[in-house]
Amino acid sequence: MIDYSLRIGIFLLLVSALLIWQWRAPRKPLQQWRLRWRHNISLLVVDSLLVRLCQPLILSFVALLPAFIYAPLPNLPEPIAIIVALVLMDALIYWQHRLFHTVPWLWRLHRVHHSDPELDVSSAVRFHPVEILLSLAIKALAIWLLGIPVLAVLLFDALLNGFAMFNHTNVHIRDKFDQLLRLFVVTPDMHRIHHSRTSQEANSNYGFCLSIWDRLFQSYTPDSEHGDNALNIGMPDTQHYAPKTLLELLKMPFTSLFHRKDSSS
After folding, report:
1. Which conformational region is residue 147 in: left (phi greater than 0), alpha (psi within -120 to 50 degrees), or beta?
2. Are 197 and 225 in contact, with CB atoms under 8 Å apart?
3. Among 40, 128, 261, 262, whose Cα sits 20 to 30 Å from the Cα of 99?
4. What is the pLDDT of residue 108?
5. Alpha helix (H) ranges present in 73-202?
6. Can you give the pTM of this predicted structure?
7. Residue 127 · residue 51 · CB < 8 Å
8. Are the C-beta atoms of 164 and 188 separated by less than 8 Å?
């Protein structure tokens, strides 16, 4: 089992590397980074505390369940089981993400993430605590149903966190290299389209790690209709009303202003 402090150390090292990268080669200048970072880091603190509190309870409940007799992965050699598990969990994240855009009450939670008016590394941790708990429960259920090895879970957590930060990083990657990369994995420019204020673009490019899922399930948008430089990030109804405090962000899914499922959902 990987020590928790080691995982935190790897996380901080990766964040530092991406911060230096986006400082040295920014995609575009950021205008609201101070307020955004205060909000996003505050959400990260709340989410982390909640996960530390609830994760043992959720995992203990799953551990008490009898082994799912149809779980396919325990019957495979461990190296193959780990590879298959990583691919299956990435597909699960794709469909979970798509579900949060499709089901109205899930979208109310997820729009906290999409309300960020700019994208950078900090956007990767801008999630409502209830969404974080639901994601944890879904992952725990998948671990039980598929019989996913512990090592695969740890590796996937590292991959998911790494790619989430990479995809939101405000960096410029040369077009030819970006096009080559996105044949295999999701890139920042590909994911940026997903944060467009245009409905059709926001409801595409759901992948986090492998780009094959968007191509396979016909949700891939290669370019924004507005062009990369003119792409507007965020939600239309937060263009004139931006949450100013952590409490407003936490209340966002439950306030009347955000109850309607508008054209960007």
Report:
1. left
2. no
3. 40
4. 93
5. 78-102, 104-114, 129-146, 150-168, 175-181, 188-194, 199-202
6. 0.87
7. no
8. no
Beta bridge partners of 233: 196
Task: Give the CA dihedral 8, 119, 37, 240, nearest 10 degrees.
Answer: -150
Three-state SS at 185: strand
CA distance 256 to 259: 5
Report yes or no: 143 and 86 within 8 Å, Cβ to Cβ: no
Instruction: State the distance between the two ends of the chain, measured CA to CA, in whole angstroms.
Output: 39
Q: Which two tokens stand for residue 104?
A: 């109205």
193-246 pLDDT, tens digit per residue, is 999 999 999 999 999 999 999 999 999 999 998 877 778 898 876 555 567 789
Fill in the amino acid letter for 256.
S
Tokens 């420019």 — which residue? Answer: 189
Angle between helices 104-114 and 78-102 (to 10 degrees): 100
Chain centroid to CA 247: 22
DSSP character for 119?
Answer: -
